[in-house]
Amino acid sequence: MNYGPEIEVAIARARADVSNLHAELVRYGLVIWTGGNISARVPGAELFVIKPSGVSYDELRPENMILCDLDGEVIADTPGCERSPSSDTAAHAYVYRNMPAVGGVVHTHSTYATAWAARGEAVPCVITAMADEFGGEIPVGPFAIIGDDSIGVGIVETLTGHRSRAVLMQNHGVFTIGKDAKDAVKAAVMTEDVARTVHISRQLGEPLPLPQSAIDSLFDRYQNVYGQAPKGAMK
Ligand SMILES: O=C(CO)[C@@H](O)[C@H](O)COP(=O)(O)O
């Protein structure tokens, strides 16, 4: 299968990005063993790239990332296709089909955020870093069985119309979305950081709420002004 020069370049870039970004999950301590996964949409094509299932992070390379269509079917005769794709492939595919602005999806079982997910409790927006990145609470999605698109349905239902790039899937863990895979990885890193801080704050007493007007202005500044080339909120 040859998709033409532009799409082949985009596929190669997505393979490299997805492979390399898995190292960030390890670097930030968000995954254990072979848990977690990242995918990236291939811009300009109805395709995405995802990691193989249950393969050591040390073995992940661009050439063993798996190319799928937006139904989550592995594209035959492409590098890596001999392996089973991530258990969450159907969930990622459902997100790409139903959230056109999403260019990357990440899943982790990072400790503090997953502890909130196990309680089925949203992380309240009580620190400026949360207002910046999430624009409010990090919501909880439904419990959903692994393997089909149920998780994807829960992600889309929960995050559509929500500012948050992260959802805590009940009794499971974190799923994040982004404009691209790096953006979704950043949301996963920030999710764990704020889940930890708010948890520790609650050990000391009841965290003070942030006024909604402050949350709104912090979110707007961080998404649209902060840094060198802000890309804006997810639409
Ligand atoms: O929690 C799940 C699936 O949601 C896990 O089974 C792992 O987090 C990753 O599985 P693979 O991506 O390696 O299949």
UniProtKB/TrEMBL annotation:
InterPro entries: Aldolase_class_II_sugar_metab, Aldolase_II/adducin_N, Aldolase_II/adducin_N_sf. Its cofactor is Zn(2+). It is an enzyme of class 5 (isomerase). Pfam families: Aldolase_II. Residues 16-199 form the Class II aldolase/adducin N-terminal domain. Its EC number is 5.1.3.4. SMART domains: Aldolase_II (SM01007). It catalyses: L-ribulose 5-phosphate = D-xylulose 5-phosphate. The keyword Metal-binding applies. One of its GO terms (molecular function) is L-ribulose-phosphate 4-epimerase activity. This is L-ribulose-5-phosphate 4-epimerase.
